Amino acid sequence: MPFFNITSIKSQSQNSSSGDPSELPTSALDEGQLAVDVLETKTAIIVIAPLAGVAAKEIRVTLSDDVLTISGARRFPKEYIDEEKFFVRECYWGEFSRAIALPAIVDSEQVKARFHEGILRVEIPKVPGTGAKIIAVEGDG
Question: What string of pLDDT tens digits covers the 141 residues of the chain?
Fold first, then answer.
């Protein structure tokens, strides 16, 4: 069974009048972006997400009803807040969230998440023996 994205990526309100460049709309993006790779091994579902510029303390990973949610915030670097003018603004700064329906029944008690060199890796063990089952159909003919 293929996986699918349940919710689109969400961002914090872009309607700030504080003058903080981290709260200005991006050039072509209205929402935060979080790309993920999801793969299935014989024993686990593995989700990999590049999170450059995000501090580990800003990342939240939750698993509820076989839906994995990765959320957090990418903060604008303070040293650039007083800059006068941007020529190109493509990077997203702010809140993000991504929910992924997992393609197998998983063991939510054994989930491991590791953040190293800007890459988040979440390994979710599958519950053994829960593959597809063929059901005999009873009836006429």
Answer: 444 444 333 333 333 444 444 444 443 344 566 899 999 999 999 999 999 889 999 999 999 988 999 999 988 888 877 777 778 877 888 899 999 999 888 999 999 999 999 999 999 999 887 666 678 898 886
Residue 138 in domain: no
| Whole-prediction pTM | 0.68
Q: Please give the residue range of the domain that contains residue 115.
A: 4-125
Number of domains in the chain: 1
CA 46 to CA 24: how far, in whole Å?
34
Let me know if residue 135 belongs to a domain.
Answer: no
> For the domain that residue 92 is a member of, what is the CATH number?
2.60.40.790
DSSP string, 9-39: ---------S--GGGSPPSS-SS-----EEE
Look at residue 130 and tell me if it is in a domain. Answer: no
